[in-house]
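Re: weekly structure request thread

Next one in the queue (157 aa):
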Amino acid sequence: MDLRVKHSLETRIEVARLFDAGFGFHAIATQLGLKRESVRNWHDQYMQGRLLDSAVMGNKKYSPQLKIAAVEKFLSGTPKQDVLVEFDISTRAVFDKWVVLYRNEGPEGLSKTAGRKARGDGPMTPEEELAFLRMENEILKKWVALAQEEDRRLSGL
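Done, posted below.
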């Protein structure tokens, strides 16, 4: 479930209008009741001419090669803002995560895919099925024990 707040195009247009009027991201965030970090990201996008770009408003996928090239360019001394523009990276937060991964795990850390591996649709081996059934039995035993404990607690009232 995505817990991020999605702001409307009208809100972004209002923010762009205020940037054009010379307001900074702190003032705009306060005036419109938005998070400063969101408005700061929008300011970066505005400076790149991408605030109202539909690609910025949705999820964007980046290849491992692009991630590695962008991080290495940043680590060689190029300012972060220039790297974001050159490689068309949507937000600082995304890029900052790549830098941390690269520093901790090297280029291999950026090649990994996120999330769990998809479970095969094929049948389980007998060992896998046995392990699954044992786990299921343990869960059911715990559930029954909790239900019995709840019954004892309620009957004692």
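The two ends are 40 Å apart (CA to CA). The mean pLDDT is 83.
Next request, please.
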